[in-house]
Amino acid sequence: MIGGAVLILIERVGHRDSIATVHDIDFKHALAIGLFQCLAMFPGTSRSAATIIGAMILGASRPAAAEFSFFLAIPTMYAAGIYSLLKHLDQIQSTQLLTLAVGFAVAFIVAWVVVAAFMRFIQTHKFTSFAIYRIIIGAIVLFVILRPL
Predict the structure, then answer these.
(1) How many CB atoms are located within 10 Å of the residue 4 CB?
(2) Helix, strand or coil, per DSSP, at residue 17
């Protein structure tokens, strides 16, 4: 919910778009955005939201912030996937390799399509709708967790 409120604040107050494209992000900004990514270690914090918010605070445009956030996700997701695969390697049977390969390929294609659609969407739209979604989902989760039994 806090991340949603921060997104709305950034969109309302405005931010300087001194970093127009992902190619304009220098080492200093990349390191700072990476430090924002560390906020995702706190429960309930989205890694992508932390990096997008951090990039926008540092002056990145919405498209540059989102694209860089996705670039930051690539090594993280690969490392997590390889770690999980190695951790459970003894449980995978040779007959499951084709299923695993097809699942990987389908997930990759779907992720590619969704990211491409999202990148087109944020070219002309603000993050306000995502912020409202985060706040509503957060409120529902809090209600479910905190309601008396």
Answers:
(1) 22
(2) coil
Each residue's pLDDT tens digit, 35-54: 999 998 988 888 888 999 99
Alpha carbons within 13 A on the beta-carbon side of 59: 11
Distance CA 78, CA 27 (A): 22
Looking at the structure of the chain, the number of domains it has is 1
Q: 92, 100 in Cβ contact below 8 A?
A: yes
By residue range, what is the domain housing residue 82? Answer: 2-146
Query: 47-57 vs 2-13: helix axis angle to the nearest 10?
Result: 30
Measured CA to CA in angstroms, residue 90 lies from 40, 85, 94, 101 at distances of 31, 9, 11, 17
Residue 7 near residue 127 (C-beta atoms within 8 A): yes
Backbone φ, ψ for residue 139 (5° rounding): -65, -40
pTM of this prediction?
0.79
